[in-house]
Amino acid sequence: MAFDLMLRGGRVIDPSQKLDAVTDVAFANGKVVMVGNELKADPGTDVRDVSGYIVTPGLIDLHTHVYWGGTSLGIDAEEFCRISGVTTAVDTGSAGPGNFAGFRKHVIERSEVRILAYLHVSHAGIYGFSHRVMVGESEEIRLMNPIDAVAVADQNRDLIVGIKVRVGRNSSGTSGIVPLDIALEVANEVGMPLMAHIDHPPPSYEEVVARLRPGDVLTHAFRPFPNTAATAQGTVKKVVLEARERGVLFDIGHGKGSFAFKTARAMLANGFYPDTISSDVHLLCIDGPAFDQVTTMSKFLCMGMPLPDVIAASTVNAAMALQRPELGSLKPGSVGDATLISIQQGQFDYVDVVDEHLIGDRKIVSEGVVIGGRWWHPQQSSKFKQRVG
């Protein structure tokens, strides 16, 4: 088979294969076809010398908001992915059953970047989230639309990976935990995972986590007090440990108000790594404190999480949460997505959502991406020697 693209001589870190080695990666017909040393290029192969850089499976950001133009919090997926090395952006509830058709037609189907979605159980998704208007969509029970959510999820199984709901004082107000129970009914009916947002109580962290099923995702898992995963003594709450034991997944979902270094330090000190690292990027946090996926990953790297684990939390672990094993891997036959990163050394100022700063000594930088087996919008293409055979 003739190769369309070859990444030559990079350090390939692919946790799905427990691979960490300097080697080559070849792509053809939109897929990964071979990983090995000194692969032979064919006439017409686009060969990129990526020695000195790290090649990972295409990064998956499990929590984004990319319904640009359809919601006030949406950002442009392609622009974001160029900057942050993301090849799969998972939109988490920007759209509900009342407006998913527009999201699909006007954004998802036009995007070169893969966009998957958790469908919100609220009719119009997260419709009132801006600098001036902040309305919790789950406050109004009349907006809960479980019947149509089941129909829309069932009709769009190629793109919809689960059901989303937001609960907490800011998002469900006096409705409390009721929207979560409605969303769980929908998820059970369509046989999909649920992603639950949690903010200030009520309901409590314990109440939310206790309801989640194996394969469900709690996002904003390392949020600040109140409703944090850690106790005042710096241990992991018992309900959290029990939830992980039964298969609940814990996602970062950094965002504007949902990640604290204090919580993260406590969780990591107890050996409780997040299952997935995600940015929760949207219009109100893309200029800080979240910024993007690689910045969120960098924070965990600087707090002592090993690089292969950081990469796993943004590749194979996310793919498993999505039940899309063809993603997040460089195994032959996998989708032909890859991300090229470098690790810069120096002093870098990172900030969390409560304005605590961390001076880190490393920073993960996106250098370019491969989507569907083709080199796509590299950050600085002049860095890489291109040779067309």
TrEMBL record:
Example of a GO MF term: deacetylase activity
Binding-site list for Zn(2+) 1: H63, H65, K164, D280
Annotated ranges, domain Amidohydrolase-related: 54-343
Entry keyword Hydrolase: no
Site (Transition state stabilizer): R166
Binding site for Zn(2+) 2: K164, H197, H220
Record InterPro entries: Amidohydro-rel, Deacetylase_Atu3266-like, Metal-dep_hydrolase_composite, Metal_Hydrolase
Keyword annotations of the record: Metal-binding, Zinc
Transmembrane spans: none
Annotated Pfam families: Amidohydro_1
List of residues that carry N6-carboxylysine: K164
Positions in coiled-coil regions: none
UniProt xrefs under PANTHER family: DIHYDROOROTASE-RELATED, IMIDAZOLONEPROPIONASE AND RELATED AMIDOHYDROLASES
Name of the protein described by the UniProt record: Dihydroorotase
Species: Bradyrhizobium retamae
